[in-house]
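Class prep. Protein, please:
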Amino acid sequence: MKSEDYKLGYREGSRDKELSYSHDGLSQSDDYWEGYEKGYEKAENIDDSVPAPATTWWDALGEWKGPVGGPRSIAEFVGADRSARVLLVLSAGYLAACRDDLARTIDQFGDTRQLSIISAGTDADGLLGEFLLPCDARLQTALGGTRQALNVRIASHLLSTGATEHAQMADTLKKLLADQPALIRYDRRPATDGEVRAFIRVRLGRDPNVTHTRLLREFRDADRACEQGRFAALFRDEKGTRR
């Protein structure tokens, strides 16, 4: 499984250290990536008849100490320096998985303004509402890139402006959001794999060098719906059969 991780830097003595906040929880950058599987093993053994919640998986990852040691949860990381200013960049799914960990983290802060969370599209709630920065898919127009990478681009933009405090970050994003157009809502018809393959075969017959991105754009322009990764996989499969 591909792991997209985000790096957190800190000083230890005279050398820089790095933490990876990824599919495997928090770990040293030179750890072995075993935590992901270990978390699933523990979560699945709780009760085979009931799917384990994402929070159980995340907490199980935190119990794996790894070969190097160090903090294995957000709460442990923050507990090492309770005066630190913390900015978390999380998708809605990971934010849900980390929820219990974040509840433990919040209790350690002397000032709630020390924590900010970027999670585009996540709805505010009683626990995390005051820490969530205002952001949603409209910012993709201003910051570019894919929807999947939007949270990281938002963080990069904020840091580039020099905003460091929660209020500064919130004001920066509110102003940026106010300048963005409304989201375009598409009403495309879903397509089966067979329909997508048929479209790809016809177009490859006309132009063997056409790219999958161009074909996906044409497919969507015809008001048909297909997720980018699924379309790319079907395209590769169809192109492979023509060799």
Residues 189-241 form one domain. The chain has eleven helices and seven strands. Residues 20 and 144 are 25 Å apart (CA to CA).
